[in-house]
Amino acid sequence: MAIVYLCGMPGAGKSTLGPLLAELRAQPFIDLDTMIEQRAGMTIPAIFSSVGEGQFRDFENLSLVQAASRGDSVIALGGGALERDDNRDVIMASGLLILLEAPLPLLAARTMSQVGRPLFRDGESLAERVGVLQMLWERRREYFELAALTFETDDADPQQTALKIFEAIDGLV
């Protein structure tokens, strides 16, 4: 067994599917964003507004190294975690990277009710949100392509999606 890393766009289901997959694998689930908030002592939007994205990415790297050192687990990465070389090095050396995907309009709809997300503007329209997600996708696509496996998360039942992932990676990690 090894570490399973879940990556994907905001709203792709990393924090929803991660605990379900971890339960199937009888491993702990680690949400990297939660670790970052604990390390910083503030929410991610507060980190972005008070110290900026650069310091946030430093917190993210420290949290990732700490999480990876724990060994076998399922780790939900933040949407931009793969943008840093040192993060990619840790991930690729210690586990299996899985991309969770869904159509941009669905991702936009899933994230519309979440306020205070640092990369989105509260009150933006669905079309504006799709535009922001399109820009993020273009920026992150090359990193998402590093994933060993890709799963669509537009299924209505997260339990079934987690089971599909579990069965596909059985024997790989």
List keywords for this structure.
alpha/beta, Rossmann fold, 173 residues, 5-stranded parallel β-sheet
What does the secondary structure layout of this molecule look like, with pairings?
Elements: E1 3-8, H1 14-25, E2 29-31, H2 32-40, H3 44-69, E3 74-76, H4 85-94, E4 95-101, H5 104-111, H6 126-144, E5 149-152, H7 158-169
Parallel strand pairs: 1-3, 1-4, 2-3, 4-5
Helix pairs in contact: 1-7, 2-3, 3-4, 5-6
- State the distance separating the first and last CA atoms: 5 Å
Alpha carbon gyration radius: 15 Å
Instruction: Identify the CATH class.
Output: Alpha Beta
Q: Report the mean per-residue pLDDT as an integer.
A: 90
What's the helix-strand series? Answer: EHEHHEHEHHEH
Here the CATH topology equals Rossmann fold
* Broad structural category: alpha/beta
CATH architecture heading: 3-Layer(aba) Sandwich
**Tally of contiguous helical segments:** 7
Main sheet makeup:
5 strands, parallel
Inertia-based shape:
globular
CATH superfamily: P-loop containing nucleotide triphosphate hydrolases
The counted number of beta strands is 5
Adjacency order of strands in the biggest sheet:
2-3-1-4-5
Percent helix among the residues?
55-70%
Weakly predicted, low-confidence segments:
none
Strand percentage, roughly?
5-15%
Give the total of domains: 1
Explain the overall architecture.
The structure is a single chain. This protein is α/β, with parallel strands linked by helices and 173 residues long. The protein has a single domain, classed as Rossmann fold, CATH 3.40.50.300. The protein has 7 helices and 5 strands. It has helices at 14-25, 32-40, 44-69, 85-94, 104-111, 126-144, 158-169, and strands at 3-8, 29-31, 74-76, 95-101, 149-152. A 5-stranded parallel beta sheet has the order 2-3-1-4-5. It is globular, with a radius of gyration of 15 Å. The termini are close together. The mean pLDDT is 90.
